[in-house]
Write a structure and sequence with these properties.
350 residues; 80% helix; 0% strand
Length: 350
């Protein structure tokens, strides 16, 4: 069995400790939307210093798929879970902006491994770029994801995303209507006949293109600066849509990590990517609500956020009660309801 050198073990330990210490601050530090130039210059100086001063063997371990996974997936996933169980809708939108930018970048560079395999020099410093770019997106003070939303996504991609979302929803409806179980095997047969790389690309596209478009629409609808006047009911629907897609990205990250790892061993098996495609559909199709199931039963307990989830559910109950009670009776009825809940709790404790 190959032994890992002590210095590498120490590096891994320090990296994990720093990541664990930093993660809770990601949703506590106000995000800046990247508007402060001195902060961006300081980050650029930090990048240059890291590349120039850090020993090469440390860079090889840190600027690697594992380092990118830690910074670009695991840390944001935890912060997304915390945001999804909170009652503040703004943090939902902020982390949704990250997933839009990160997922679009990952999908656009899906063939980078193939390129670096053919042209090693082209990918010599790829992981350094990917690591620092992802950290720029994540870190609240640089807030690259907010910057990209304000200056790229919002002005140029939001109108396209709305049309794309509508078209894709129409295609999905047609497929669900026409392709019943008797014809589904034809679709599956055509899919499995594709080369392995194309099957993977289609599965990744299935899990990113429509969710990215829907996430952009949810962000733009919830943006308080979009210049539109929305009713309370519309705000609630927008908040629910943003939370739905935030929960989806957190759970899809787990699926993508599993697929990315297992395909090295079983990717050649015909049914592997078919299972990944079905799991992706299970997560985001409304008829299944799979992402919410995985989120509540797996991710929330593992992250220690179960009590906050209950508080979030209680908050939604309160909002529902307020909407159902006429405004002239609302204050008095809510006060009596509060006394009723307190009395019920007291009886259980005695």
């Amino acid at each position: 069995m190959r032994q890992i050198p002590a210095d590498k073990i120490m590096l891994y330990g320090i990296t994990v400790i720093v990541a664990v210490a930093m993660t809770p601050w990601l949703h506590k530090i106000p995000r800046t939307k990247g508007r402060y130039v001195p902060v961006q210059l300081a980050y650029l100086a930090f990048v240059v210093g890291m590349l120039g001063l850090v020993p090469e063997w440390v860079q090889d371990e840190l600027f690697s798929p594992a380092g990118v996974l830690l910074v670009g997936t695991l840390m944001p996933m935890y912060s997304s879970i915390v945001a999804a169980v909170s009652t503040d809708a703004d943090d939902d939108l902020a982390w949704l902006q990250f997933w839009v930018a990160s997922s679009a970048f990952n999908f656009a560079t899906e063939f980078m491994d193939e390129i670096t395999a053919q042209l090693p020099q082209a990918g010599e410093h790829w992981y350094e770029f990917e690591f620092f770019f992802t950290l720029w997106l994540v870190f609240p003070l640089t807030d690259g994801s907010g910057f990209m939303y304000e200056y790229i996504t919002k002005p140029f991609l939001t109108p396209v995303a709305q049309k794309l979302k509508t078209q894709l929803e129409g295609y999905v409806g047609i497929i669900l209507t026409v392709v019943n179980t008797s014809y589904l095997w034809i679709v599956w047969f055509c899919f499995v006949r594709l080369p392995e790389e194309q099957r993977r690309f289609l599965v990744v596209g299935l899990g990113t293109v429509y969710p990215i478009a829907s996430s952009i629409v949810a962000i733009s609808s919830g943006d308080s600066k979009n210049g539109t006047n929305t009713s309370e009911n519309q705000k609630k629907k927008t908040s629910e849509a943003a939370r739905f897609w935030l929960v989806y990205w957190a759970t899809y990250s787990i699926l993508f990590i599993a697929m990315d790892y297992l395909e090295n061993f079983v990717g050649h098996i015909i049914g592997f990517y078919s299972l990944c495609a079905m799991a992706t559909l299970y997560l985001f199709l409304p008829m299944f609500q799979g992402a919410d199931v995985i989120f509540r039963r797996v991710l929330v307990p593992l992250s220690g956020q179960y009590e906050n989830l209950l508080l979030h559910d209680a908050y939604l109950v309160r909002i529902g009660m307020e909407e159902s009670i006429p405004e002239q009776h609302r204050e008095r009825v809510l006060a009596k309801a509060s006394d009723l809940f307190k009395a019920s709790s007291s009886k259980k404790n005695t």
